[in-house]
Specification:
2 helices, 150 residues, mainly beta, two-stranded antiparallel sheet, 6% helix, extended
Length: 150
């Protein structure tokens, strides 16, 4: 279920009851696998997870392309080498978080910003995963037109 909070989409999931089998179990049960719940892999803390859509090519060197969906966890503290969402000068930006000689740097393909240039630096969250749409334009029709986009 999607909820909109402060302009951002948050997905919440309900945990389902585990199925129990009584009596004789199938010999094939050893080969059964549970259904893959992608949220178990991508969302650690649902209350602190937000989704952003990347705009522009400012992070292509880090493998993040225009239109990718960024999964961002606000409960994590940024560390050297993390991809972060920062909020300098009233706008969200996605950058590589670097610590050099105690100074915070935000590096992107268009240059590096130092904490002193940014004034008060607010790290909004840490990018934990990136989702990319792989459909060719010929298949992006109908209900598939917005696959992997918010």
């Amino acid at each position: 279920m999607l909820h909109k909070v402060n302009g951002f989409m948050i997905r919440s999931f309900e945990k389902r009851a585990e199925q129990k089998i009584s009596g004789f179990q199938s010999p094939a049960a050893d080969y059964l696998e549970g259904r893959l719940d992608i949220s178990d892999r991508l969302v650690i803390d649902p209350h602190s997870t937000f989704y952003f859509q990347m705009q522009g090519g400012g992070m292509e060197s880090c493998g993040i392309l225009d239109g990718d969906i960024l999964i961002v966890d606000r409960s994590l503290t940024a560390r050297h080498g993390a991809i972060v969402i920062a909020f300098p000068a009233g706008a969200f930006i996605c950058r590589l978080f670097l610590l050099e000689q105690g100074a915070v740097l935000l590096k992107g393909d268009n240059g590096t910003l130092a904490e002193t240039e940014l004034g008060t630096l607010q790290i909004w969250g840490v990018v934990t995963s990136v989702c990319r749409n792989m459909l060719p334009k010929s298949l992006k029709v109908g209900r598939y037109s917005r696959v992997c986009t918010l």
